[in-house]
Design a protein that fits this description.
The protein is built from 16 helices and no strands. With 460 residues, it is mostly helical.
């Protein structure tokens, strides 16, 4: 049985798409959908991302209550910059690894993963060094908010990014349980470190960034011990691996980096055009819908390599079927979180932050619209990356970037935090329209190609 196939799928007739169960009513199909191997590991992946989301949620609450809005906003900007680093990591290291390594076996797989590990260490080291130099320079020039924040980023970029790579190795090897354990260690260490630092009187937003970095270092050590027999030197060619990853990942890198700029750079622009305190208010609103992030990350982390494997085993029909499953299984939880966020905005803000951010409660409706649009194309994005067709993601993100650089900046200047969220929703809408148009055309062409052999056989 191939990875990602349920016991039922493994016994289908040759050429039948996964999920086309012979016989049985809809109840049996629902049970199989919710209890198969993919579903069970999907639940573990969801738990993994839920732990990450819960840790980030608790971290945000602790910092928002202990720091001034300006320092909390500085932490928010630093946290967003770690996502840029992750976007670069996805394009250059992670996505090539998760798409190509599952089809390899034995020594070839170990060599491929070791090559990816070497590239990851080099990438993290370069990014960390750049933050140290630029942060030091800004601090010397008198910027006592942005400078120390940028300097402190060396810690999560070097340690958290490398830990994330090890976690994704577990997903590539279909060892989701080990990824969950690694996440749990990191989360507990992060909250413990942060609680200790805040109790000792820390007042800077950089404490949150150092908490992420040092706790990830502890989990990274555990991950390296767990994978100690995986890494090899024999057969490793970093130069060839770089060319291979670049050939595969340049469109993924362009898509993820430009997508980050088109969507995530809005709060950074708000810090520059309005204030760091306004970015803190944005982060406070965003934290209420934080559970959505766990679902989105779970889909991208778990389903992208599974979609690549399903494509290899079952072809385009298998990919289409799994994308439908992704929407079916995740749609209801996403809708529940968004409805609750709108219905209980003020009680939630007061419970989490006291009265500090109550004046921004009106922005929650815009935040919910933004996240609904973000979710609308997320499974399609995973499928396109798994099929090695990332170019539409890049094109969609470029269109959203143009909108951000024009209408988005104008919206921030006009309406502050509300313009920030509205601009993000606009960018997400543009990406969704482009990706859905691409997906519908690809599905139509796939079905037409599938019908052609049947017509030829009938004519014969």
């Amino acid at each position: 049985m191939g990875p990602g196939l349920t016991a039922v799928d493994a016994h289908l007739p040759d050429g039948a798409p996964p999920g086309a169960w012979p016989g049985g009513g809809w109840r049996r199909r629902v049970v199989r959908l919710l209890s198969g191997d993919v579903a069970r590991k999907g639940y573990l992946s969801g738990l993994d991302q839920a732990l990450i989301s819960l840790t980030n949620f608790a971290t945000t609450i602790m910092l928002a209550r202990a720091l001034s809005p300006t320092q909390f906003g500085a932490y928010g900007v630093g946290f967003i910059l770690t996502r840029l680093a992750r976007a670069i990591q996805e394009g250059l290291v992670v996505q090539p690894m998760t798409s190509m390594a599952p089809s390899l076996q034995g020594d070839h797989r170990r060599a491929s993963l070791s090559e990816s590990g070497g590239l990851q260490v080099g990438l993290a080291g370069i990014e960390a060094l750049a933050c140290v130099i630029l942060g030091w320079a800004l601090t010397r020039l008198g910027n006592n908010v942005a400078g120390p924040t940028l300097f402190a980023l060396w810690c999560p970029l070097l340690l958290a990014q490398t830990q994330e790579f090890v976690r994704r190795v577990f997903y590539t090897l279909d060892q989701v349980n080990l990824a969950v354990l690694n996440t749990l260690v990191s989360g507990v260490a992060q909250l413990a470190f942060l609680g200790w630092a805040l109790a000792a009187g820390a007042e800077s937003g950089t404490v949150g960034l150092y908490a992420i970095g040092w706790s990830s270092g502890a989990a990274l050590l555990l991950g390296l011990i767990q994978t100690r027999r995986l890494w090899v030197r024999r057969g490793v060619d970093l130069r060839a691996a770089w060319h291979k990853n670049w050939s595969f990942g340049r469109w993924v890198l362009g898509g993820t980096a430009v997508s980050w700029i088109a969507i995530e750079v809005y709060p950074i622009l708000t810090a520059g055009l309005v204030s760091f305190a306004a970015t803190g208010a944005y982060r406070a609103l965003q934290n209420v819908v934080a559970p959505i992030h766990s679902l989105l990350r779970a889909m991208d982390t778990y389903f992208t390599p599974r979609l690549a494997d399903r494509r290899r085993i079952a072809g385009p029909a298998g990919v289409i079927h799994m994308v439908r499953r992704m929407f079916l299984v995740t749609g209801l939880p996403v809708a529940g979180v968004l409805v609750a966020a709108v219905a209980f905005t003020e009680p939630l803000l007061k419970l989490l932050y006291g009265a500090t951010y109550l004046e921004y409660a009106g922005g929650m409706r815009l935040m919910v619209i933004f996240y609904a649009l973000l979710y609308s194309f997320w499974p399609l994005q995973s499928a396109l990356k798994a099929m090695e067709k990332p170019r539409p993601i890049f094109i969609a993100s470029m269109a959203a970037l143009v909108a951000m650089a024009t209408a988005g900046i104008w919206a921030i200047l006009q309406w502050g935090v509300y313009g920030t969220i509205g601009g993000q929703a606009m960018s997400a809408l543009i990406i969704s329209i482009v990706l859905w148009s691409t997906w519908r055309r690809w599905v139509a062409s796939t079905r037409q190609a599938g019908r052609a052999p049947a017509r030829d056989a009938a004519l014969r």
